[in-house]
DNA sequence: GTTATCAGTTTCCTGAAGGAAACTGGTATC
DNA sequence: GATACCAGTTTCCTTCAGGAAACTGATAAC
């Protein structure tokens, strides 16, 4: 992943006439790269919801997430949590209770996604209002 | 789509004891719904990039998008543009030039996504810095 | 000893996402 | 009349995201 990004950047900055042209006409190019970098972490049906609920509610157990995130199954939940943990967005802690429980919690780094998540939530709420009132003025 | 959302809301507000419980413990529930509503519009590999570039650069032609959005093919570009147009995020205008050209432009409603896109770009840039300096402090 | 809960894993399956390449059809240029 | 550019469309193909359901294995309650 790191290598991939470094490669991309090398290609971008050297010996590519098209890229130079694009840089000349405003570097949206760099911002598009930032979007794909962000979406590499956030893509898929569940990750943003999981980050959101952990931001909103603090730590949660596996079963709680299963019950609170509408429609998710155990397999996808497990998979997405592993992925988010690998990317340092959340932590996993096993508690030695009688039946063991596992707590998932957002990391400090994960919290840096709060403005992004909030912005998505805000737009989504506004969007729903627009749809329901059929008031999308072009 | 509208019906779908209305149905969901009906289910949410009535006769579902679990939902009532969740509402009692803080309505993250409503915010998760907002996330899925937003992602219904933004999901997939290309839509956020397309909205981004049209926000950054104003109107663009089909071929320009094809050349500027790294990796996209004509089929996907066409499909995603149609979808964004159907959702009133962008407009399509055919210009009667010698070989006809087609301009795509963000709508006023599409512009309401700017804070969201910007927030994703900002996080993505920060994320790349972190990765490259290997400085992700837990 | 049967059932339940915890937190998953495994298997099997399907549909959708997405890509490559060829094709369309109109106009202009050489 | 051959080639090229415009903006797509169509076909064919592969891969992967994601879901359902059964299973694991430990402990506790009845």
Textual characterization of the structure:
The structure is a homodimer of 138-residue chains. Chain A has helices spanning 2-13, 17-24, 28-42, 47-57, 62-68, 74-86, 108-111, 114-133; strands spanning 60-61, 90-95, 101-106. Chain A is globular and about 55 Å long. Chain A has a three-stranded antiparallel beta sheet. The longest helix of chain A is centred in the last third of the chain and has 20 residues, at 114-133. With 138 residues, the first copy, chain A, is mostly helical. Chain A contains eight helices and three strands; from the N terminus they run ααααβααββαα. Chains A and B meet through helix 1, helix 3, helix 4 and helix 8 of A and helix 1, helix 3, helix 4 and helix 8 of B. Chain A binds a DNA duplex (30 and 30 nucleotides) through helix 5 and helix 6.
Task: Name its key features.
138 residues; 3 strands; homodimer; 65% helix; disordered N terminus; DNA-binding; globular; 8 helices; mainly alpha; 3-stranded antiparallel β-sheet
């Amino acid at each position: 992943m790191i290598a991939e990004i470094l490669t991309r950047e090398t290609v971008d900055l050297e010996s590519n006439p098209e890229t130079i042209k694009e840089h000349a006409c405003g570097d949206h190019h760099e911002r598009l790269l930032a979007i794909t970098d962000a979406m590499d972490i956030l893509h898929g049906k569940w990750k943003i919801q999981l980050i959101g609920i952990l931001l909103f509610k603090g730590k949660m157990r596996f079963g709680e997430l299963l019950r609170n995130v509408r429609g998710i199954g155990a397999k996808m939940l497990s998979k997405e949590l592993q992925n988010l943990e690998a990317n340092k967005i959340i932590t996993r802690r096993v508690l030695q209770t009688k039946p063991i429980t596992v707590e998932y919690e957002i990391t400090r780094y994960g919290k840096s996604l709060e403005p992004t998540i909030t912005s998505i939530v805000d737009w989504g709420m506004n969007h729903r209002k627009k749809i329901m009132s059929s008031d999308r003025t072009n």
